Automatic annotation (TrEMBL):
It comes from Bacteroides stercoris. Its main location: membrane. This is RagB/SusD family nutrient uptake outer membrane protein. It is found in: Cell outer membrane. Signal peptide: none annotated. It holds the Pfam family SusD_RagB.
């Protein structure tokens, strides 16, 4: 997408309250003056995408909360940074862990920016196409944020408009079902986005991204028929190589994340050396503050050399091959994939299998498309003869194909593998504790902390 520097937006969008001295010059943008035309709204959209890059989200903390927590990456340094990452690794985190508060605040900061756009755009004169594109992008990112929130914490506050401090102090956590209702509603809006953007706008959310993410939401809800409904046309376009396509992973990672047709939506970063992506230098760096890739090479099949190599670090202190893009001033410009064609095929295979009493050719074709793309032999219905055998094959393929892409922990939880992968860990640890800093700022603390954790 167009890279627009909008520090003026940051100045107003990062402010979560109004109790500051108003000594701005007359030409300083405010909420009243910034969102008065399409140019202002477009700048705000860039600000929405920008926060996804934060070290509190896809830049760093998501990798701790979603991968270190799982069994692909481990941390063995109990002293680094006060042990906050090690606590996530060994399931001893408390509501005071700053990984949690950082991610929570950044997600709601992004939602705040989305809400500003959505509530101000109605008063702006624009074409219907512009209205659809602006609303769709803000809705897509808001849905993505709430999807991450509900998977990390379960019940969370639903905030769809800017709030005063007093209103914020009275927020309550909403039932998971209501959070999913909002996510679905937002993604239906986002389905109105273009399938592709002009080359200069590459990287913006598309209707493909909206449908893929919506299907993933339905997968978590176990609404398998809706998964199929959302993905049928996407799968057809992937198979026809129309706009999208499965691409061998070495042709996507690490240097072609911006251009590969396998990427449906990614968090994008500018080229290194400009101060934007400095936190990327720590993206799973081997033995950096105790983080080690723990996905055993033996988990891969003998011919799975490409995926195996992309997961393995290139040496001590180096990133795994998947994200080992060239660095400038210790910064890389490698994007972070959120939705890929390979995952679409695996979701389709999983849903089709769940809807049938026995594995079907339709489900097998989708699974084999990913395997063949990885230079592996396709499976047969004789090999995957039962629903459970097929299900486990999909789960394993997801682990290997999507390794290090912030999905593994959620897959462990949603597929009921917690007791198998982490025997002896209490079930309540499937959700993280609500950050203590958030609870301290609400008036009524009753019902705010997740089961198993205490409100201090």
């Amino acid at each position: 997408m167009k890279k627009i520097i909008i520090s003026i937006f940051t100045a107003i969008a990062l402010s979560g309250c109004n109790d500051f001295i108003d000594l701005k010059p007359v030409d300083f943008p405010t909420e009243e003056t910034f969102y008065t035309d399409v140019k202002g709204l477009e700048g705000a959209i860039i600000g929405i995408y920008d926060e996804l890059q934060s070290s509190d989200q896809y830049g760093s903390k998501f990798m701790t909360l979603m991968e270190v927590r799982g069994d692909n990456v481990k941390n063995d340094n109990s002293g680094a940074s006060g042990g906050i990452t090690y606590q996530i690794e060994v399931f001893t985190e408390t509501p005071a862990n700053s990984n949690l508060s950082g991610a929570w605040l950044s997600l709601y900061k992004t939602i705040y920016r989305c809400n500003l756009v959505l509530q101000n755009m109605e008063k702006v004169q624009m074409t219907e196409e512009q209205r659809t594109q602006i609303a769709g992008q803000a809705s897509f990112v808001r849905a993505l944020c709430y999807f991450n929130l509900v998977r990390l914490w379960g019940e969370v506050p639903i905030i769809t408009k800017t709030q005063t401090v007093a209103e914020a102090r009275n927020n309550k956590r909403s039932p998971v079902s209501e959070v999913y209702d909002l996510i679905i509603k937002d993604l239906i809006v986002a389905k109105g986005l273009p399938e592709v953007w002009d080359e200069s706008e590459r990287g913006r959310a598309t209707s493909y991204a909206a449908r893929a993410l919506l299907a993933k939401v339905y997968l978590y809800m176990k609404n398998y028929q809706e998964v199929i409904n959302e993905l049928t046309s996407v799968v057809a376009d992937i198979n026809a190589k129309r706009n999208l396509s499965l691409v061998p992973m070495p042709q996507t990672f690490p240097n072609n994340l911006k251009t590969s047709k396998d990427i449906i939506f990614a968090v994008q970063y500018l080229k290194g050396g400009v101060g934007e992506s400095v936190h990327q230098n720590n993206r799973y760096r081997n033995n950096d503050n105790g983080n080690i890739i723990s996905l055993e090479q033996a988990e891969f099949e003998n011919n799975d050399d490409n995926r195996k190599a992309l997961v393995a670090p290139t040496g001590s202190g180096q990133r795994p091959g998947k994200f080992d893009a060239p660095a400038t001033n210790n910064e890389t410009s490698a994007d972070f994939p959120v939705m890929r064609c390979a995952e679409v095929m695996l979701m389709y295979a999983e849903a089709a299998n769940e809807l049938s009493a026995i594995p079907t050719q339709e489900a097998l074709d989708a699974l084999n498309a990913v395997r063949i793309n990885a230079n592996l032999m396709g499976k047969t219905l004789e090999e995957l003869s039962t629903k459970e055998i097929f299900r486990q094959a999909v789960y394993k393929e997801r682990r290997l194909e999507l390794a290090l892409e912030c999905d593994r922990w959620f897959d462990i939880v949603r597929t009921g593998q917690m007791t198998t992968v982490f025997p002896g860990i209490a079930a309540y640890r499937q959700l993280y504790p609500i950050p203590q800093t958030e609870i301290e700022n609400v008036s009524d603390k009753d019902g705010w902390q997740n089961e198993g954790y205490t409100v201090e």
